[in-house]
């Protein structure tokens, strides 16, 4: 599939900068007063920020040029697209985009706490079917939404392809940093341990087994494991089905079956959970997200789940979310298993107890989710949104109760581990460096696939006698030379 088409792997920069130290804050945010129909096209509102005034915020839309970034590929200094520079309708509304009916209900609750902080704004909720649809709504010629909470994987896409900017991130207790981990049943590790010649289970042993995946483009559950599989040559790039993204084909070639239900059919994989493949519009599958992927593993729909660490501890039988999870889904304690029944599968081989933690047994540390807005959002509106989110998540007990650990069982809008919302007043790109590393190799393979396609197309044109012979020969020579250069670079 072409890298620029919807659902394909992203076109990324070829260089991968070193990750910055983990920021001290992290988290998404949002709010709305009234829910908007999925197909809503209400004009966007802007206007002055209400409530307390924040210190001046660096303007992400006019940073210093970054010579290491190619023009038009997510550079903070890249000129805005026509969609971004369109005139904004008058008004003082903030529209928070969410992806299902339950998130709409939570959003409507949260904005009642945001409204008093910014009395000059009217908050509302807009429902779309996916993160991708929310990004489209924000980046539309006539914007239908203003802000959205995104996983780092989708933040990467929103920044590099849509030039959206980060304004807030989730803060985690005690500086908690999420890691991308592979979780398996303890029996799988114990079975391998009985092999005296090779007692340690390897990631390569998962070939032809079943995978529980939290969602397309999610950093810890998709990008990091995809990079590992490519780095270690456990998979090769796939580009045989034009209706599927290349990285989806790659996962399907490694695992026999997988469970990753989605409202968007083009990124939905349901071969190991066929009963959850059809999701009513506006609803959420029980196997969606990091919590859903763990439930998929817990209920025997898969042999491995790619998760953010902390999910197993929180959602296993004695975890802080166990009782709320049981009540939410009318489960029984028999369905909730102990954390000791699962193991971390280390990328370097071998299994580790969940209680021993992920350091040294993960695909790497991931960023936490964040809230993104249009690049050209007026600075006073951005500051008003930031002020409302920070104030409510810090000082309003009702706001905190609705989203903090122990209550937000389905991780609606925010992750369940969030303690408060921290402001992000720096450029967006540095925050995404580690995520960039997790997907850079995928982009390299995509670029090579596209160059290979160009070369093959030129060769076919030469053989088919289309155009003059000198022209056809020139096309082939240029394609071969460019492909060779890119092979060296990648």
SSE blueprint:
Layout: E1 35-36, H1 82-85, E2 93-98, H2 101-114, E3 122-127, H3 131-138, E4 147-150, H4 152-162, E5 165-171, E6 179-185, H5 186-193, E7 210-212, H6 219-231, H7 246-254, E8 257-259, H8 289-298, E9 304-308, H9 311-315, H10 322-329, E10 342-345, E11 351-353, E12 364-365, E13 370-373, H11 379-395, H12 397-403, E14 420-423, H13 428-431, H14 433-464, H15 469-489
Parallel strand pairs: 1-3, 2-3, 2-4, 7-8, 7-9
Antiparallel strand pairs: 4-13, 5-13, 5-14, 6-9, 6-10, 6-12, 10-11
Helix pairs in contact: 6-14, 14-15
Q: Share of helix among residues? A: 25-40%
SSE ordering: EHEHEHEHEEHEHHEHEHHEEEEHHEHHH
Low-confidence parts, pLDDT < 50 over ≥5 residues? Answer: 1-90, 444-458, 486-490
- In total, the number of strands is 14
Question: What is the CATH domain class of the largest domain?
Answer: Alpha Beta
Query: How many DSSP helices?
Result: 15
CATH homologous superfamily designation of the largest domain: Periplasmic binding protein-like II
Strand content: 5-15%
Could you say what the CATH topology of the largest domain is called? D-Maltodextrin-Binding Protein, domain 2
The CATH architecture assignment of the largest domain turns out to be: 3-Layer(aba) Sandwich
What is the terminal separation in angstroms?
19 Å
The biggest beta sheet is recorded as: 7 strands, mixed
Give the CA-based shape.
globular
> What's the mean pLDDT score?
76
Gyration radius, in Å = 23 Å
Major sheet strand order: 1-3-2-4-13-5-14
Classify the secondary structure makeup into a structural class: alpha/beta
Number of separate domains = 3
């Amino acid at each position: 599939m072409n890298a620029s088409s919807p659902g394909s792997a992203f076109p990324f920069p070829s260089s991968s900068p070193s990750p910055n130290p983990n920021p001290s804050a992290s988290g998404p945010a949002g709010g709305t007063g009234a829910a908007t129909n999925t197909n809503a096209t209400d004009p966007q509102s802007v206007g002055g920020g209400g409530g307390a005034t924040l210190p001046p915020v660096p303007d992400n839309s006019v940073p210093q040029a970054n010579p290491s970034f190619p023009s038009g590929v997510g550079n903070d200094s890249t000129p805005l697209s026509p969609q971004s520079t369109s005139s904004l309708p008058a008004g003082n509304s903030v529209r928070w985009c969410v992806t299902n009916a339950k998130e709409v209900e939570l959003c409507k609750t949260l904005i009642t706490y945001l409204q008093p902080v910014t009395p000059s704004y009217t908050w509302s909720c807009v429902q779309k079917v996916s993160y991708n649809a929310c990004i489209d709504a924000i980046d539309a010629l006539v914007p239908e939404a203003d802000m959205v909470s995104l996983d780092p994987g989708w933040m990467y896409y929103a920044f590099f392809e849509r030039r959206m900017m980060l304004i807030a991130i989730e803060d985690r207790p005690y500086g908690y940093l999420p890691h991308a981990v592979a979780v398996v049943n303890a029996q799988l590790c114990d079975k391998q341990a009985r092999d005296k010649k090779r007692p340690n289970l390897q990631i390569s042993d998962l070939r032809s087994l079943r995978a529980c995946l939290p969602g397309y483009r999610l950093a810890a559950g998709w990008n990091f494991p995809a990079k590992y599989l490519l780095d270690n040559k456990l998979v090769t790039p796939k580009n045989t089905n034009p209706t599927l993204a290349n990285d989806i084909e790659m996962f399907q070639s490694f695992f026999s079956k997988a469970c990753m239900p989605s409202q968007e059919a083009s990124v939905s994989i349901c071969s190991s959970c066929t009963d959850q493949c059809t999701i009513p519009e506006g609803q959420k599958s029980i196997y969606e997200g990091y919590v859903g992927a763990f439930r998929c593993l817990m209920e025997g729909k898969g042999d491995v789940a790619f998760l953010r660490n902390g999910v197993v501890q929180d959602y296993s039988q004695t975890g802080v979310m166990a009782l709320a999870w049981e009540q939410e889904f009318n489960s029984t304690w028999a369905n909730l298993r102990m954390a000791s029944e699962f193991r971390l599968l280390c990328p370097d081989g071998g299994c580790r107890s969940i209680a021993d933690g992920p350091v040294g047994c993960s695909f790497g540390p991931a960023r936490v989710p964040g809230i993104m807005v249009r690049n050209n959002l007026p600075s006073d509106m951005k500051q008003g949104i930031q002020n409302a989110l920070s104030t409510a998540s810090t000082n309003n007990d009702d706001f905190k109760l609705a989203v903090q650990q122990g209550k937000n069982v389905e991780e609606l809008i925010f992750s369940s581990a969030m303690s408060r919302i921290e402001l992000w007043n720096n450029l967006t790109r540095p925050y995404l460096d580690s995520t960039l590393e997790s997907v850079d190799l995928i982009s390299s393979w995509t670029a090579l696939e596209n160059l290979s396609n160009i070369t093959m197309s030129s060769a076919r044109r030469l053989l088919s006698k289309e155009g003059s012979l000198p022209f056809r020969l020139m096309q082939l020579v240029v394609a071969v030379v460019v492909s060779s250069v890119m092979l060296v670079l990648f």
